[in-house]
Amino acid sequence: GAVVSQHPSRVICKSGTSVKIECRSLDFQATTMFWYRQFPKQSLMLMATSNEGSKATYEQGVEKDKFLINHASLTLSTLTVTSAHPEDSSFYICSARDLWLAGATDTQYFGPGTRLTVL
Amino acid sequence: TQLLEQSPQFLSIQEGENLTVYCNSSSVFSSLQWYRQEPGEGPVLLVTVVTGGEVKKLKRLTFQFGDARKDSSLHITAAQPGDTGLYLCAGGQGTYKYIFGTGTRLKVLA
User: Fold this and answer.
1) Cβ contacts of residue B59 below 8 Å, gap of 6+?
2) Looking at CA atoms only, how far is residue A99 from chain B in angstroms?
3) Does B101 reach chain A within 8 Å, measured CB to CB?
4) Contact A105 B31 (CB under 8 A)
5) Within an 8 Å CB–CB cutoff, is residue B2 touching chain A?
6) What value does the mean pLDDT of chain A take?
7) Average of pLDDT values for B30-36?
8) What is the mean pLDDT of residues B9-34?
């Protein structure tokens, strides 16, 4: 099956620093990747939709200058949390949509997530 | 804003019991997916339903998409401790964007 990886799996950083999280589709091409945020014991909240070669579309309430998204290739999207603060601590999960399986099912494959802790 | 409400929010049952999880919305979805998530991991897709009234079975799990494509249910027969996890429904609206439900945390006791 399709595999999506995320790196790093865990990161601890100091307040005020920036952190970059990578999301890669390993065995398929993904024109669209999604970034989610999940707080403990809660559901996933969609942050933004990342399209290869164009600007990301952010959900209402998500600061685009705070969460920078770059989707430079069909297999890689990055999320950079700029000037991180403790309230940014969360579990960040990406998903990728298979270009060649596009259709009614709109299947998306999830990465394993990245746990960010801001001290 | 679309909202997918899941019920119950929490469920603790004994091994061997049956259970049903509901996913309801006022919005129509082109497809609906069910996921299971373990702590510290990403969600794993269980099933995708796309047709109103569709029923899919996956071993002891039965999924149903409502006729109006606004709601769905997940029924587990003879639950096992391995079924423990966070169950999430997610609705798609053809923009390739998914809205996730509020989640149901299931614990199956041996």
Assistant:
1) none
2) 11
3) yes
4) yes
5) no
6) 90
7) 92
8) 94
Q: Quick one: tokens of B8?
A: 């119950």
Q: Do A104 and B50 touch (CB under 8 A)?
A: yes
Cβ of residue A35 closer than 8 Å to a chain B Cβ = no
The answer to whether A54 touches A69, Cβ cutoff 8 Å, is no
pLDDT of residue B2: 59
Asked if the Cβ–Cβ distance from A113 to B98 is below 8 Å, we say: no
- The closest CB to that of A43, out of B41, B96, B102, belongs to B102
CB B36 within 8 A of CB B21: no
Asked if B96's CB is within 8 angstroms of A32's CB, the reply is yes
Instruction: Point out the least confidently predicted range of A4-8, B70-74, B94-98, B100-104.
Output: B94-98
Cβ count within 10 A of residue A14? 8
| pLDDT tens for each residue of chain A, 119 residues long | 678 999 999 999 999 999 999 999 998 888 889 999 998 888 999 999 988 888 899 999 999 999 999 988 889 999 999 999 999 999 999 999 876 665 545 678 899 999 999 99
What is the C-alpha to C-alpha distance for residues A68 and A64, in angstroms, rounded to an integer? 6
**H or E segment at A84?**
none
DSSP secondary structure, B32-89, as one string: EEEEEE-TTS--EEEEEE-STT-EEEETTEEEEE-TTSSEEEEEESS--GGG-EEEEE
Subunit contact B96:A45, Cβ cutoff 8 A: no
